[in-house]
Amino acid sequence: METSDNKWHDPQQLLSLHFSFAASRVLSTALQFDFFSIVNHDFHDTKEIAKQASADENGTRLILNALTAHGLLTKNNDNYYLTDFTARYLVKDSDEYVGVMMENDDIWEAWTDLPYIVKNGSPRREVGQKEKGPDFFPKLIQSLHVINLKPAQKTAEYISSIIDKNDPIILDLACGSGVWGLSFAKVNPNTKVVFQDFDNVLDLTKKYVDNFDVATQSDYLPGDLNEIEFRVDEYDIAILGNIVHSIGEQQSRQLFKKLRKALKPGGKILILDMIPNEDRSGPVFPIIFALNMLVNTNSGNTYTLSEYGNWLKDAGFSKMDTHDIGSHSPLIIGS
Length: 335
What we know:
The chain is an alpha/beta fold. The chain contains 15 helices and nine strands.
């Protein structure tokens, strides 16, 4: 039965939905040709931009118009200009450039295989496999660092305000840039952070550690988080920042149990992830991201708060709380 708040009322909306992939392709193509950086270097008309990008003039014009229609450029007398937003996040010279994860076709190519995956239940390849992971995940680090920095800062500020210990030892698992642990180190100079990830990822983590000027507060634990045996009663806080969705229920539940033993009495596990509502009818992002895990992993998914609560209880945690960190999903705190 149709409800009064049903947003679907015109079949043209279905055409828009079906064609919504085009916006993603426009953005990726613009990044591949580095159009935003070219405009930032004071090339503004189509002919100049196409020449700098070694691209076709008409194709360039159509992409620039599409970017303008989406509000990523402005246009005046057939000249194109950056917005403050695009100058900050889509110009390669910017410290806050997030286009690294969007400028290649890996995600696009994986999603084109969706019918095969739905029929067969698993992808032809899995980006989380040990032999592929060390090559795949470094591509994401710069973009995810910028995207997660504000939620990480809010997480560190909140948790630091509610824990009793002034010199906590924090384990940041599959840390990538280390954005979650780094934020704790900046909030409290007495904090020690152990960054865990693949060897070649930790090489990148160390650069972020140096940029944050927290090298004396940092240590490193190389390896696969599913294979490492953690010391018992070693850490005050363990952080899983956007990890659970990629490793799936079985590995996550095993990891929760390992981390419960690795935490000191009164320790906390922090989980940041994409969390759908209980009947998995929304919000859109966590629901679509579950499909992204189907496309890219053999066991990944997104999980509800009740599922996390059950898993934490089974692992030996007595309490689960949540806290708003200004992201798409709340911070989960297991104590």
